[in-house]
Design goal:
The chain is built from 4 helices and 2 strands; from the N terminus they run H-H-H-H-E-E. By secondary structure, it is mainly alpha-helical. The protein has one domain. A two-stranded antiparallel sheet has the order 1-2. The chain is elongated and about 55 Å long. About 5% of the residues are buried.
Amino acid sequence: MGADLFGSLAESTCAALVVSSTSWNLMSTDDAVFFPLVITAVGIFASFISVQFVHIKMTVEGKLRTQLILSSCLMSLVCIPILWILPEQLDITFAGNLYAGTRW
């Protein structure tokens, strides 16, 4: 099961890098194309902190719930400043169609 989780993480990170490389705005902005890698790195850090809570005295359900809530809160709080890496306007071409959107 661990190999499947790692495979899914690696595949989704590579797919996000490929999709982000199709946007001229992302390619012309410094460090914006590294956004998927930064999110993955923060996720590894949040999971490392969450795993440390397995040692608390609770039921299995309580431990898993605590870890899920903690990792979700950590990821949400840390990803907010990371969003400023992205450019103000995103234009991504997918299957010949141009999708334009703003950060907010």
